[in-house]
Amino acid sequence: MAPGITTGIRSKRRFKLYFSRLLPRLYYVWETEMFNEFFYFYGRRYSRFLTIWFSLGIGVSLLVSLAVILILIWHWSWLIFPGNQNNALVMNPGESRNSITLVVPGLNVPWSDIGYILFGTIIAVGFHEVGHALAAASEGVRIEHVAVFLACLFPGALVGLNHSSLQLLPPIRALRIYCAGIWHNVVCCAGCCLMLILLPVILHPFYLHITCPVVLDISSGSPLAEHISPGHMILDVGGLQPESSEDWIRDLHMLRVQSGLVHNFRIDGALDGNTTVDSESSSVISTQGFCVPKLELETRKPKAANSTCWDGEFSFYKTPYLNTTKLVPEIKDKIDVSQAHLNGHELNYCLRSRDVVRYPTCDREKVANIDDQGTCPNNDVCMFPELQSGELLIEVIYMDPLSKNCSLNLIIEGSRTRLSQILAERVNYSGKNDCLQSLIFAGDPMSLAFSLQLTNYWPRNIFMLGLFNVSTTLWFPVWFEKLITYIFYISSGVGLLNSVPVFYLDGEAILRSWLSMITHSVHPRKQRQLLRICLIIGSTLLFFGIISGIIKQFS
């Protein structure tokens, strides 16, 4: 992405001539000498420290170059010998996170992230070229100009150095200059990792890092949008209390696994208190049920065939594996055995879903293999919701922290124990004016998981919510974190690209200096031949690496 440094007028003209012929109208460059004295002054002033600093960069750059070459050879072998991907001992690079991935806006990166890409490129490339400039100044090499260019809409930068001064330097001192850009990219990546780890500390003056996820956005068309808004806090989902967006997804996946749903699920809507369910279109597959008190079933009649439940109610059935001889006597006396197999099930009841989901859960297999009640206490009856294939009945408890009835102290002070007690009691939170609210979701658990974007940051001062709207204020930490992430990936890409021994990049100059040190007794003409062979091999490996990345994107 960045061409690295140019060594004087000859290299600069060669570089510009190459691109001007290839891209006559898509290559623009701007050169300035305004930074020459600045870099030279500070480079000479702190030359002793910078010499040690960039000497470390030589070793790190060598390790990075070797690692990148090995990765490229791996990709090359995968393309030439595709049969290796079936070897159990060899991981397919096409499915590996370590494979080369091309960043293409609109394909694997949304167009809305183009600003992050451009700004991240400026930071990564700028940090790379500052390394070259300071290293050259510390070695006494004059800077001729600093250039910024735009090639095929991709920004870049380069530092023009005095070619004669570079030629007079010993190879080890020249290596400090050539490796400085890669070394600075490595340092930039390390800094980004540190900032991501310490992000709650960095944002501490402005944001609280709370122990429950806050809603940032809701996917368009999601039925949750009628109930949950940006700024609401998710407290409980299916009896589990997520503390982050990762916990939210993991908990829903756990509910999916525990319920015995192992098929590919269909995305469906949600069921709140105002949804009517048609039992004729339902097919049961979930193995998770609820222990409904026997007394509640005694006060209700079984649902008639082809009928629907009232608003706020849901159709529940007893496990179909049982026969009517094992029914609870009080229930058996009230039903007609000939009508017991409604829709293929023995018993169907319309029960209030908000109440049922708070009962203890039971398992279909345990009910089928043990007794009528299975694991239910007090002779309660195990009832199963009548759902579509791959669906579950899940209760989501949330709160609006901006409501006058709510207090953030439960969350801000980290009172998770007290919050758990309140959620366990499950009293006075479903009313319209109460702080805690709940909804019942009937559908694919993973569609629920990915319908919300969540964060753990909440504004420290309420005036921030007055200065901006709630959604914008909550997005600031996400934007900042995404920018750091992009800087990390782009900086690593710039460093890795320049570490490969290919034409016109830093890898060419680094390889030339290494060959001068290792083969100093070899005739210069043979050195140039060896250099050219290595550059051709390196360029070929990079080409195959890019091809493998393209195959991965479009396969």
Instruction: Report the β-strand fraction as a percent range.
Output: 15-25%
Cross-sheet strand order for the largest sheet: 9-8-11-7-10
What structural class do helix, strand and pairing data support? Answer: alpha+beta
Helix percent reads 40-55%
Compute the separation of the termini in Å: 25 Å
Low-confidence stretches: 1-15, 84-98, 262-285, 320-345, 368-372, 426-433
**Number of contiguous helices:** 19
| C-alpha-based Rg, rounded | 33 Å
Largest sheet: 5 strands, antiparallel
What's the β-strand tally? 14
**How confident overall, as mean pLDDT?**
75
Give keywords.
555 residues; 19 helices; alpha+beta; 4-stranded mixed sheet
What does this structure look like?
- By secondary structure, this protein is α+β, with helices and mostly antiparallel strands.
- The chain is built from 19 helices and 14 strands.
- It has helices spanning 8-22, 36-45, 47-80, 114-138, 163-168, 171-197, 199-202, 245-258, 294-298, 329-332, 353-356, 364-369, 409-412, 416-425, 445-449, 463-467, 470-499, 506-518, 524-554; strands spanning 5-7, 27-32, 143-151, 154-161, 207-218, 233-237, 288-292, 313-318, 348-352, 361-363, 381-385, 392-399, 436-443, 452-459.
- Strands 9-8-11-7-10 form a five-stranded antiparallel beta sheet. The chain has a four-stranded mixed beta sheet with strand order 1-4-3-2. Strands 6-12-13 form a three-stranded antiparallel beta sheet.
- Strand 3 and strand 4 (154-161) form a beta hairpin.
- Helix 2 (36-45) crosses helix 4, helix 3 packs across helix 19 and helix 6 packs across helix 18.
- It is elongated and about 100 Å long.
- It starts with a strand and ends with a helix.
- The model is unreliable at 1-15, 84-98, 262-285, 320-345, 368-372 and 426-433 (pLDDT under 50).
